[in-house]
């Protein structure tokens, strides 16, 4: 705090005030104040004090630490002064106070006058009770607050430290419970008044990255503080792996099979996903599920604020989506300055005018990526989103119901959508009047989720359910284990593989580490095969 | 039967809705009712003396840091009174007289106020008003009030021993003092003084507000010195050893977020904390109390016998937690054993906007702020008692009392 410098600089100032006596050494400060306080004395005595003070300074310099003026005050002065003694433990000097601030205990006595007893004992009395020696100070005329009734003593106090200054686990748990309860109250006051259920619609299909994406999304959804139902639509039918993951998630879920397989072309994949989402919406309608519908694609990343924001939606809302159209290529194409300037802001979402109403849409400008975009899933090229992604929209599920009170007329009936097999690009087709969409997230200023498409090559192999069964094809014997001599016939491809490994190893190491007789020469194998 | 069945859940719904609405903040009931919302206009009249600018404006012109440090209340009080509705230009009808002398505006290069000239400045101002106007001599200052926001009020010294030695300036013995310092049975707290909060910049605090739904995840928060190594190297003097005790006992405790660092997110962190420590320093008061109240953090006051601002209007025991300096080693036990309802009630009281408003000195002044609380305090002291007005020729104060240095003209 500011006050830290106050007395120190004050003392220095007072020395300036009384004529600029240079204060050498640390021992000067108190003396300067004292001297200034004794200003009105005759010049002779002030010269005397000055010389005394200089002597003290010299002694301090010689000894290497701040010399206690207590000795002189004991001899000469009758004024009650406070002072501070040195911290070094020197047996030579009588110390009026002893303190150790390092480890455990400190006991001190306040001394204002020389009549106080010294703690001539070194080391300080190690009374571990840690009570202050305040009583001794109070008994002697130490500076109380000037009032005999006050029990607050001015002067040096002990620093009270308990014997085991570490946290008690029971108390820590109590503190955590207090904080939890406080946060619950905060949510109750400032958070959403009546939290609605969140219905999360996720189209997915079985491929190498499915487990990666679903795990991420699963953890996100587990952290949502509202009641949630996860509606997973799986292309190509439900798989055991996905079902297992869902059942282990601890979330309420609905696992819906979708008959068509997911195509390997990005354009077709987008179209299929759209149809899967519509299918999910129909299921919501059939089961009359109530809540806010959020479209969470499995590879997207969502913030927690998104789920708080969507609680505010009346009928249909839009949020800003960050578009991460990554370039998978090892070489980044060199962009011209102009291209760099025109690089689009990677955000899709509602655009508001100055009065906070929806004025239009920010869409992703795909032009800089024209010709370089990926067409096949898993290709190492930027994957571009459509004009407006489903992920940026949220619906009130009652909008989908056949009859719901208060349903606005600008919402089309779900049956009328997608009948003729037309492409449902984005949820705006569900509306008759797209201008009634509510912009969320501070009118679209806050990006609440990121759209990302990362996939492996379509023909990438991965173990089913990420469980290794049967054992892998490539078996490399550990170098030093006592590998038993195998008498059984090894299948030929295994031998080939092993031979390759051995040869590679041989070529690297020196000839002395010849492998053991488990390897057969290639020729033998061939003979054997023949 | 059917209607009865339907009525019951409806009644429950209505009841819970009413409860929810009432739960957000709780009204503060002071010792005299809802005094925080009293309006002083019409209850008193204040006459503002016109002093030469060397007592006020010139000081601020010399060093404008006076407007932003924690002692700035004296300057803003003057400005407020000049344009307030309770100001009267007719001294005959005034209940209170205000002398605009800025005694804490003499700053060192580092920005700390020097109190050495303050007694002389005050004395010179009083001499001026007693010669120019008859109202001082009429009462010898008993219906005058002065704002003295320095460390130990009108004792005009930053070191407690020296301040006690000096005592309250003799000329101010009959006047009402408006000061930040308050400690029971202390020489520097005169009977009848009004304790006010120190100045904390309201604009700056408002710009650092975070959304109220940000969860409070810090249990105890404190930023400041524990040892004042410049002035008290061994410890034990500074804060009567209380701050050092806090450090030594709780530096390893994960519930205590305490350090000497001054982070740029200081205000934001206070809003994420449940308890904020407000231990004494060289003087028992600090702007931390104001910050804690504004940011909704329950203040833990570690200062024996402290008198908090507007103590007669604000029930501080219900809002803050008081811990004796001797009990600091048990601070974690004390704080974790406070019952949950008590903590929630304190938070509700703190959330009350009138509470926060009463601690601030906004420009321009707003209803319910600290300026108005000061005026309310002055209004509560009216009507003046019999001993305020002196008989003609009666003299109570000794004008030559005090250390010789104070008698020098300024």
From TrEMBL, chain A:
Task: Write down the superkingdom of origin.
Answer: Eukaryota
List, in alphabetical order, the GO biological process terms annotated in this UniProt record: cell wall organization; glucuronoxylan biosynthetic process; plant-type secondary cell wall biogenesis
User: Does this entry carry the keyword Glycoprotein?
Assistant: yes
Pfam families under this entry? Glyco_transf_43
TM segment ranges? 48-67
Q: Provide the protein's localization.
A: Golgi apparatus membrane
Name of the protein in its database record? Glycosyltransferases
Q: Could you tell me which species this protein originates from? A: Eragrostis curvula (weeping love grass)
Its organism's taxonomic lineage begins at: Eukaryota, Viridiplantae, Streptophyta, Embryophyta, Tracheophyta
Automatic annotation (TrEMBL), chain B:
What are the BP-aspect GO terms?
A: glucuronoxylan biosynthetic process; plant-type secondary cell wall biogenesis
Q: Could you tell me which residue ranges the Exostosin GT47 domain spans?
A: 43-338
Membrane topology of this protein: Single-pass type II membrane protein
Matching PANTHER family: EXOSTOSIN HEPARAN SULFATE GLYCOSYLTRANSFERASE -RELATED, GLUCURONOSYLTRANSFERASE OS01G0926600-RELATED
Q: What is its main location?
A: Golgi
Q: Which residues form the signal peptide?
A: 1-22
InterPro entries according to UniProt: Exostosin, Exostosin_GT47
GO CC, alphabetical: Golgi membrane
**What are the entry keywords?**
Glycosyltransferase, Golgi apparatus, Signal, Signal-anchor, Transferase, Transmembrane
What is this organism's lineage? Eukaryota, Viridiplantae, Streptophyta, Embryophyta, Tracheophyta
Report what the protein is called: Exostosin GT47 domain-containing protein
The entry's family comment says: Belongs to the glycosyltransferase 47 family.
* Localization: Golgi apparatus membrane
Q: Which GO terms fall under molecular function for this chain's record? A: glycosyltransferase activity
